[in-house]
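Input (2-phytyl-1,4-beta-naphthoquinone methyltransferase, chloroplastic):
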Amino acid sequence: MASLQLHLLPLSTGPCLPSSRFRRSLVRSSTERQALFNRIAPVYDNLNDLLSLGQHRIWKRMAVSWSGAKKGDSVLDLCCGSGDLAFLLSEKVGSSGKVIGLDFSKEQLSVASSRQKLMSKAFYTNIEWVEGDAIDLPFSDGHFDAITMGYGLRNVVDKHKAMQEMYRVSKAGSRVSILDFNKSTNPVIAFTQELMIDNVVVPVASGFGLAEDYKYLKSSIREFLTGKEMEELALDVGFSNARYYEIGGSLMGNLVATR
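Output:
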């Protein structure tokens, strides 16, 4: 069984709008969560590798592949964190393409920028890091050929608005690929997730002094959307097609939506 990773990637800092079937109550305020993500930035990558036994790299490659990004494309990685998906996208689009990594955490972006400078591959210079809000993207309509989001939608204050923004800034025919924990309707899978969080994730995080921060993971998964609800959300904002894939032994999931 695959191990779990935290991936507390950034969320919107915008206000919580009136509830709908696609929004859930907050377990932390935006300010608190932003501070949390800034605080874990220095150990973020090490913990992800440790907690997932490195498997998160496989899942991220799958997400990027599903995005359909290709040479010369202009692409966006939302809630980019320390930049894993952005670097994979950079390899896909090449030196003739452009990658924007957007995040609301300055510390995470600083880590991503530092990693970029240490990389030896020339085309990684095609990445630009932008501090911004997932529900108010600073880009024009129909700007991107592909969009990815890894472990971010679960933490966005207004998921419906975030999906609307992804729809708005994507080109006709392009794809959005969203990777996150799978909120399974299977009680065995749900129980396994909680068991591993309590007995693997939190104890390991304790070694980094982050036990209380990582306890947030369980509630964020409980309040997330199921695969069917993810598909409905994408279709609701205008995407022509949406399909949700369970991966990682059904512990993870990836939504692929076509504009």
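Confidence is low (pLDDT under 50) at residues 1-28.
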